[in-house]
Amino acid sequence: MKYLIAGLGNIGEEYRHTRHNIGFDVADAFVAKHGATFHNDRLADVAECKWKGKTFVVIKPTTYMNLSGKAIKYWLDKEKIPIENLLVIVDELALPLDVMRLRPGGSDAGHNGLKSIQESLGTNQYPRLRFGIGNNYPKGRQVEFVLGKWKTIEEPVVQEKIEKCTEIIESFAFIGLARTMNTYNNLTYPALK
């Protein structure tokens, strides 16, 4: 069984470890946990991990966020992975920092990465893991917030959630989407002190 795990983000040093690049950080953590490494390939940095008889093709698109769909479509087709075995990891303004939600599909909610995936795949019915980043920014400052770095006080929660994401990816492959949603969707992560 093969799975495509796609962490969304933007390439370039200025975007490293920003809220918008949490998908890249989760992909890095998952690949490191499974002892694999990324190499540059067509439209993405790619790593392959094997775990309990499953193969994970993990990608970080190098297309920039608003063309993420191009990379995902290419790798789904190339690896012959069915859409239900795709999991996209994405930052989510509509969720507070202490929450994550696994979903079987849904609207792009104005997220350019999800919009691009929906256009490329012709459907919004594909699994995604929404990593809450909160919306604690002044009016008109959304872009600066999303492209900004985590506050020091947020780091421990972010790290804990990244580790939990690696478990969620494994669970998604091993026990399926519905059971993984039941297990993880109601968890909250330690409140910020």
Helix/strand layout:
Elements: E1 2-7, H1 22-33, E2 39-41, E3 44-51, E4 54-61, H2 68-79, E5 86-92, E6 100-103, H3 112-121, E7 128-132, H4 142-146, H5 155-175, H6 177-184
Parallel strand pairs: 1-4, 1-5, 5-7
Antiparallel strand pairs: 2-3, 3-4, 6-7
Q: What can you see in these coordinates?
A:
The protein is 35% helix and 21% strand. Strands 2-3-4-1-5-7-6 form a seven-stranded mixed beta sheet, with helices on both faces. By secondary structure, it is α/β, with parallel strands linked by helices. Strand 3 and strand 4 form a beta hairpin. The relative contact order is 0.18. The model has no long low-confidence stretch (mean pLDDT 96).
Order of neighbouring strands in the sheet with most strands: 2-3-4-1-5-7-6
Low-confidence stretches: none
Main sheet summary: 7 strands, mixed
Proportion of residues in helical segments: 25-40%
> What's the helix-strand series?
EHEEEHEEHEHHH
Q: How many separate helices?
A: 6
Shape: globular
Count of extended strands: 7
Give the percentage of residues in beta strands: 15-25%
Estimate the mean pLDDT confidence: 96
From the N-terminal CA to the C-terminal CA, the straight-line distance is 42 Å
Radius of gyration: 15 Å
Please give a handful of descriptors for the protein shown.
globular, 193 residues
Please summarize what this structure is:
The protein has 193 residues and is α/β, with parallel strands linked by helices.
